[in-house]
Amino acid sequence: MTHPEPIATHVDPVIYEIFRHRLETVLEEGRLAIRMVSGSSVVIEGGETMCALYKSDGTPLLVAQGILLHCVGARDFIKHCIEAYEGSPGINDGDQFFYNDPYIGGQHSCDQVVIKPIFYNCERVAWVGSVMHTVEVGAMEPGGMPASATEIFQEGIRIFGLKIVDGGEFRQDVFNTITMQTRDPHMIGLDTKGRLAANNIIGRTYLELIEKYGFDVVRDASEKIIDESEAQARALLSSLPDGVWTSRIHGDDTSGGEDKPYRVVCTMTKRGDGITFDFTGSSPQNKCSNNETLPAAWGSLFVVLASHLFWNIHWSNGIFAPVTVVAPEGTVVNCRFPAACSNGVVTSGMMITESAHECIARMFYAAGRYDDVNAGWSSAGGGPYFGGINRKGELVSNMILDNFASGLGGTPSRDGVDTGAQMMNPQSNINDVESLEFNVPLMLLARRQMPDSGGFGKRPGGMGPESAYMVYGIDGLMVGSIGQGRRAPGSFGLFGGYPPGLQEMRFALGSDVRDWFAAGRSPRSADQLTEINAQTILDTPRTLPIIPTREYDIVIYNMSGGGGYGDPLERDPELVRADLERGAISADTASLVYGVEADQTTLEVDVAATEACRAMIRRERSDQGNVARLHNPSPAARTRRLVRFHESLAVDQKADGSLVTICLACDRELADARGNYKEHVGRRERTLSEVPLRHLKNGDRPWVVYVEYACPGCGTLLEVDTYCPETDGEERIIWDTRLDLDALLASSSREGPP
Fold it and tell me: How far is it, in rounded angstroms, from Cα 343 to Cα 144?
């Protein structure tokens, strides 16, 4: 077991707290400076920025509350700069270096960073780095994330480190060389100057703190931040049960114009005060741009580490110390150069986040930390991107940020939040409509919360959004799409809850929508597009290379909701009625999934019919013909509960010393606790084609079937997994939770009888 060095105790605790809070404040001041200088909606509204301080060797000291993908920040760029440029051209006081090579750091070439060394008394004592997403990088398609790219060389400028400020002097030649390679040099220039401004503010304040408290105090307090974070992270891990947890998430691969599935598999092993995330079993790297480089995979993992596992610990290098990542080279989680990777962040990267999220949520439940448990958040990211000329004759290139209003997962005690956030972005603001329409040749026709988009459950996932946009004012706007989740849900349900709905995008090209407007009507959903007299109705993959559009062409798309938590049949029928009233679910879903029969006009629940419907569903689930191998319990009595690891399952110890998994709903012994209970309960594979948003409007086959596991005694739904024959083969059954039962027995013996 590895332990951190002792935390510095000679730093005055009052000064330490003041110092740390001042650092946090100045990092936020840096992010504010970026937003004041930049003109980008991704930055100003979406909050896609991050500022951080680093030790002189590039070790992260403290990270601001920015977009979590960049919590790894500029660490790898700084280390590369020291290694590559210490000798020539040299790293001097007043220098700043520009980077955006995703094989060194960041997520993709859109993530541009400027790093600045901080000198005191002619000695380099720290670094500051500012990262932000820039929406145009001169790639083969506008918007910086070309869906048709097959290699990194098609994804725009890739800077391996350029000194953009030399000894305090701004280098116009370097600045022009970077910005003039893009479609929108003015916007890119503002973004770059925003990073420079942030670094200057943060660096100046850091030196002021040295002058105020002395270098030795600042150095020791900085070390204490890192040491304290590591100690807290290891203490948290030590308090959690040891074991192995596994998750798999499926996605859409559009390589070479061919739509096919792929997957990300995460196996999380927690031992003592360390934790490993092993992505062995993930698909080989794609030919398209849905890949993650190794630095990007770290960043995607850090999203869930920062927001879920270590959410209350200072974000510094200390929280990296207990974490190990295994990402096989040549896979979608660690692609080989020169693979394209511009869309990895909203595809494979979000699958990394959510697969690790599922493992962590299950571990937290087994630890009894129910307030820290939630089902999957939306992990299907992205949305439309576009480029062309706006109504003022200006070049534009950008993306729509409605994906930041996706649904959150259900929890043990509450429903998921509707159109609430994405895990990568704590701010999660979406585009201001007036600002978007002023600058871009688009008109918003409708936004709504999408019925049936959340995962079904005792505590359903929150709804995701549906948005309708129309090209307005020009012909020739190029529009494409990025993301995944069309033919397989991008996230997970938990403990009998269902994954969220599928995501679709539909174009109406050459329509008569002006006749609708003249009649006082406007299309507000994708289903209505079939009512418009359009030359072409186009249902597209989630990752779509740009297509040309004309004025009055329409695109309508939905983003997924959160995952459901718990058996939907355990949801109070009156809550289901309330869901119907507010449009969260359809009548079909209420009946088919929740077993609730309600009057179509008044929505009053028919109690008797509901009870009968739910009883029928439970009988179908518990049909023992669906059980591969029924468990044969021993006659020994159960003597104590060892652990509750699931909403409806626990491990009990028997008088003969054996351990069994039991159903908490009916007290039935289901399996030997040292094996996978799923092999001894009811199992049904279903397409859910009769349920809204679980099938596709144009008839394309979803990649997955839904595998339902239920107690053979009472029919309680225990888990809903997804299975994809093309990627999973014979791996039909996931062993999602393998607790170290011997460690739990030893721990409970030391603690005495319960």
Answer: 9
189: Cβ contacts below 8 Å, ≥ 6 apart? 175, 179
The two tokens of residue 64 are 């601001």
Rounded distance, CA 94 to CA 166, Å?
A: 6
Rounded to whole angstroms, the Cα distance separating 326 from 632 reads 39
What average pLDDT does this structure show over 702-718?
96
Residue 171, C-beta contacts closer than 8 angstroms, at least 6 positions apart: 163, 164, 165
Chain CA centroid to CA 409, Å: 12
Pairing of strands 323-326, 274-278: parallel
Helix (H) / strand (E) element for 350: namely helix 348-366
User: What is the enclosing helix (H) or strand (E) of 50?
Assistant: strand 49-55
Packing angle, helices 185-213 and 215-238, rounded to 10: 110
The pLDDT of 619-646, averaged and rounded, is: 86
DSSP label at residue 88: I
Rounded to two decimals, what is the model's pTM?
0.96
Q: Which residue has the higher pLDDT, 144 or 721?
A: 721
CA distance 409 to 416: 5
The string of DSSP codes covering 431-494 is: --HHHHHHHSSEEEEEEEEPTT-SPPSSBPPPPPEEEEEEE-S-S--EEEEE---SSS-SS--B
SS (H, E, C) 164-194: EEECCEECHHHHHHHHCCCCCHHHHHHHHHH
Supply φ then ψ for residue 114, to 5 degrees: -120, 125
CB neighbourhood size of 425 (10 A): 21
CA distances from 439 to 390, 391, 474, 505, 507 (A): 7, 8, 13, 23, 22
- 611: alpha, beta or left? (left if phi > 0; alpha if psi -120 to 50): alpha
Backbone angles phi, psi at 163, to 5 degrees: -80, 100
- CA 707, 418, 487, 352 torsion-angle sign: negative
Per the CB < 8 A criterion, the answer to whether 309 and 323 are in contact is no
116 SS3 class: strand
